[in-house]
Amino acid sequence: MKKGILFILSLFLTFYVATAIETWGVSKNRKNVTDFKVVTMPRQTTTAVPTATIDPNIFVKASVDKPEAYLNEQIILKYDLYTRYDTRYEGFVKEGRLRGFWLEYKETDKNVPRETIQYEGRKFVKATIREIILSPIAPGKYTIEPGAVRVSVVKESGERQEMQLKAKPIEIIAKDLTGTEENKGQKKTGASIFPAEESNDIQSSPNFNDGKPGLMILLDVSGSMLAEDLQPGNRLAVAKNALKTFMNAKPNIRIGVKVFAKEVVTVAPLTDGTKKSLQEIENVQVGMVKDGTAIGDALLAGVKELKKNPARKNIIVLLSDGANNAGHIDPLTAADFSKQDNIAIYAIGIGKDGLVPFPINDPVLGKRYVNAEVNVDDETLGEIASVTGGKFFKVVDANQLKDAFDFIGIVLTRIYKESASNRL
After folding, report:
1. What angle do CA 389, 298, 48 make, to 5 degrees?
2. CA–CA separation, 161 and 174 (whole Å)
3. Order of all β-strands in the sheet with 170-175
């Protein structure tokens, strides 16, 4: 009897975990706009993202509390969902582009606040689905591209339908305080351009002055790297194997390794030779950093480390399988800083788009798989590489990843030869 009860409980736990993972990704924030309780539903079998929908009964508005701001002054960006349907908010299917700002994502309440309002003579339910604090880091005119969200609604037919909603762009003017009355006798305040180092981010790496190029590896360790759409093993295992093969073939390069999810952590500082990096990569795993994908912060941390190596050319290799949804800097802003310091970014988008298999280790039934939807932001990764004079690689198997590293190895060899001839 006791074994039977335990078996039933195990089946229930397995189903619960499987359903939770299946709704992970853009579905992890799914909420009902009517009562705002967190709900879980099986994903649809299709992986296609619907085109942006124009419907007067449901839309998303992005707004800021001020259209102009001085450098480091805070601006609040809000995303509000307006609906007249029974609606479930499923999260951002495409993250916004916030180039030129220091960012602070506000935690989203599980019980999304809502209110019933009159809008253009009609009654809507309004819900604030995201808030971000922006601080301009350079003067100029900026256009915020808010991105797109996914919702599912029940219309007159009674069937639930998936929709994608896009907010309109917003323009912001950032003004410099220099020379203004407000600035006289005042000290500029605000966040540093470079994020604070983590406690284990080693500060003792030497300040090289021999002109030898440096290579910084930025490896995504967010939860989606456990997907097993690449073989052998999961995405992270395939990436680690490719990195080790690459470093074993070039034992004398100057290299460092950082991993990132919601935060950035240095696992091996910039050092001559690959021995230290090879040792530390063995210990890299999903879960060592709080989950999220802070691509912009990772790039900026890589730039900061490579600034210790004043070579004519340095390289960053970024491996990620997601889209920037955390951190304090937009990836394209970080790419702009990388370009200023003559650091080329070679971005690798690892993994297939759409539904991919994730493993579950069940105590009774053993290992099994469920599908979850993950989409790589190839567009942003490609632009990051293009801005800095690097290259973007889309890889969906281990051979393509090897080819990407072979190409990067050729580029690195050429840069080393040019650097050596310049030092003669």
Report:
1. 80
2. 40
3. 68-70, 170-175, 140-144
Determine contact, residues 89/149, Cβ cutoff 8 Å.
yes
> How far is it, in rounded angstroms, from Cα 227 to Cα 267?
23
pLDDT in tens, 118-162: 999 999 999 999 999 999 998 999 999 988 999 999 988 888 899
Residue identified by tokens 């060899």 is 413
- Give the residue ranges of DSSP H helices in 273-397: 275-281, 295-306, 331-340, 378-388
pTM for the full predicted model:
0.77
156: phi then psi, degrees, rounded to nearest 5: -60, -30
Q: Which fold has domain 214-423?
A: Rossmann fold (3.40.50)
Residues 353 and 227 sit within 8 Å (Cβ to Cβ): no
Helix (H) or strand (E) holding 222: none
| First-residue to last-residue Cα distance in the chain | 82
Q: Which ranges of 273-374 does DSSP label H, i.e. alpha helix?
A: 275-281, 295-306, 331-340
User: CATH 3.40.50.410 occupies which residues in the chain?
Assistant: 214-423
Residue length, the chain?
A: 424
Dist CA 31 CA 157 (whole Å): 21
Phi then psi for 10, rounded to 5 degrees? -65, -40
